[in-house]
Design a protein that fits this description.
Elements (H helix, E strand, L loop, with lengths): L2 H16 L3 H24 L3 H20 L6 H23 L2 H34 L26 H6 L1 H25 L18 H17 L5 H25 L4 H10 L5 H24 L1 H32 L5 H22 L2 H9 L5 H22 L2 H4 L3 H25 L3 H15 L1
Amino acid sequence: MNKSDTSLTEGIKRQQILNMPPEQLTLILYNGCLNFIDEGIEAIEKKRYEDANISLQKAQRIISEFRLTLNMEYEISHQLLPLYNYIFDNLVEGNVKKDTSKLIEAKEMIKELRDSWGVAIKKTNRKKAKEKDNSSKFKLPKIKLPAKFDFNALLPKYDAAEINQSPVKFYKAVIGATDEILNYLQQYGAAAEISIPFDAKYIDSPHLTPEENSLLKNRREKLAQILNLGVEGLAAQILEIRNESEEMAAYRERIMSGSKILSELCQFEKEPRVSFNFLVENIAESATLAQDKIIFFAENKNFIEQILDAQEIWSADYISFKQNLHRKLKNLCSIKNKIRQNIYKARLEELRKLRLAIEEKFLPLIEFALKGKINFNSALKSLEILNEYKSAVDKFSCSEENIQKKFDDFTENLRKFDEKFSDDLQGIIDACPKYNEQIFLKKWAESLAE
């Protein structure tokens, strides 16, 4: 590449950076800082100290720029400044003393800041997309369904008493009834063959404990299972029943072509089999449930879009909460007074347990609503006040000053959060039209109150 080509390429890159959104530029600077630290560490290990100094000074300049551009009108800036100061001091000390342990510590802190920033960008982008489109991220397609079929109406078409007396009439009737049910299921199955943009797969977060990852994984998988509208499994079961009936027909044909027809037919007639009416009732029940699930989805698309959105946001928020808690733990562990250090650790663990208890309440509420045992309006309002509780705990946890409050002040804050949630929920419970909904919501909130 000649000199003019190089200049042109560099000019294009500069223009791209100038046109980049500030939040994206911050992410690039974090990544650049990490690259320079890696270069510095590698150079120190290879005793190329001049190269190490050049790379580490570049990393220092990035951190200095972050400090200079903080807007101290915002609380978050007061939380970031001591972190940047600590990182900068580690970079300087690691460079001067050629101490890679200081550089590695600075690198890990920058990684956490970078990851948190990435989560924040995603949340901001989601919010912007919602405001622009005023619709759910999970935009689900409309379903045009055929007329609802009453599967239980099949049984009166057949003379069950006569069919139960004859194995020949039995297998013929079963084949006819299963064919009819499979035909209607196929029509509903075709209507329900839609793509829900919700992946059941969950990737463990390195910031969470096995217990926390398990909670988020199970919630995601359970929602995917609830929203699985496919009728393939049921159709396969009904087809298996039909195949068994055809085997009965084939068995009768083998008897008729054998030598001991009379005795074998006598044995064939005596073989135990389920009653025709009980068999059809069971198949009809399963088919009706599958059909009702598809109808429910089609009629409540907006609610399902909202809970899918909420699930994504809640999972991202919890990971962000844990990253913040981890940073607070690191900072508080630098306190020389071991007694205070242990007190603050215990408080962080208390906040983690409370936050996890809030997280555990998401799925039971949604499951109850999707089963039709609580109206959607009550479910969404309950989820909204639970989200307010969650946000209050998250905000409280962001401040080291809150963690270091006197015991009475610390517990008083948590008590106020709980009281507000309980009072708001009571208003929803009082407005519930059905007694069973009131009982569920009271029981649902019990462990949080404890």
